[in-house]
Every structure is written in structure tokens, then in C-alpha cells.
Amino acid sequence: MSTIALNRPAAKPFKLIRHSLELTRRSLIKTWRTPEALIDVTVQPGLFLIIFVYIFGGAVSGSTHSYLQFLMPGVLAQTIAMGAISIGVNLNTDIEKGIFDRFRSLPIPRSAPLIGAVFGDVVRYVLVSISTFAFAYAMGFRLGSDPLHAVAGCLLAVLFGLCLSWAPVFLGMIVRTSGAVQGIGFLTVLPLTFASNVFVGVGTLPGWMQGFVRNNPLTHLVEAMRGLFLGTPGYLPHVWWTLGWCAALVVVFMPLALAAYRRKV
User: Most exposed among 44, 90, 136, 234, judged by the fewest C-beta atoms under 10 Å?
Assistant: First the structure.
């Protein structure tokens, strides 16, 4: 009777969730055993803050403290966007090593390994939020809102990172080597981060660039986090835009990644 129940269509979503969560646990154990792989989400935010605040802060904002207040949400968004590339690299490496051949021989849904890997990356995004706040507070950053809004801003950033992860996952499925995944990923993410409001205000940019910058998903995320962290007005539309971008990233890249995965393995 139990075998028949498991084969019913209604049971398939629960089977997918159960196996995805089990593979999420595998991803978390892998992360725990290789802590050096977390350097990009623990040390990198501090390096970016130190470099940009103390080298460019005076020139851009006239004060390192005011620039730190402006820059901190942008560095958090940038680090999450760059950190998302690693999931595509790791999945491509696992396929090269034949790990996904073992998954294919198991009685699990074909999409469970990818979903589990994406969910497992939530630890990386939580860590980058904590480390960015820790470095920023040590340098003099202070909230202009309340802790509840700050947590909401961090959760929004984590959600954006999880949704954005499906783009590198798709890239990891269609590119032949992990090095190529990393190279293409950085070539895509760097223009998005610099052609945004991460480092400077939109009004300071050339007119021909401002249209792209205003519609950049990172611009909406950064503006939403600045409002939630600093209490600046007018941030709510950017929250909705960010949620819309999250939905669009999942709707576009998740089916593409799953289809590419089925063809590859």
C-alpha cells in the first residue's frame, strides 16, 4: 500500500521536497567541511568596504563616514551577486567528477539535486549578510532604522541571491568547464554591479547610462536595502521591483537549468 501511495501524483511534490531537503543537507555538510570555500562571503565584503571607503570615499562623498552609510547596502548586494557564481562552478565540477551520475542511479526526482544545491546556498547568503554588517559596524556604520527593518533588508537580499542562483546553475549546465563558468559569470555580474547605484548615485552617471541603471535589478535591490537599513523614504516600490525580479529570475532560469540538466546527465 505504501508503494502505491508513493506512486500517486499527489505524493510526487512531497517526494521532491523530501529529497531536495536531503540533498540540501548534503550541500551544507560539504560547506561545513570546506570552510575555505567561504572566503568570498566572509572576507571579501570587508575588503571591498575598506578599499572603496578609505580610498574613494573622500573623493566620492567628501566623507568616509557618509560614504560608508551609502556604500554598505551596495557592497552586500554586490557580494551576493558575485557569490552566486560559485554554485554554477561547483555544480559543473560535480558533473565533471561523476557525482551526478550517482544521483541519476538513485530513485529520486531528476530536479532534486539542483533544487537541493540552490537551497544549500542559503548559508552563504546568510553569512555574507552577517559578515558585511560586522565589518561595516566595526568601521562606523550605524542603522538609521530599526533591527526589524534591517532583518527584512537582509532577508530580501538572501531571497534575491537564491533566485539569482538559477542563472549560474543554468550556466553550469551548458558550459563545459568550471573555469569557463566562473569567467562568464564574472563577465556578466561585474557590468551589472558597476552599472548600478552600488558605488555612486544614479544622477551622477551619464544620461545615456541612467536608463539602464534605473532598471538594473541590483539598483532596485540596493535602493530597497538602503531604505530598510537607513530609513530613507521611497524605498517600498523598489522592494516590489526586487520581488518582481526574483520571480522573473526563477521563472526564466529555473526551467532552463532543469532542462539543460536533464540533457546533460
Answer: 234
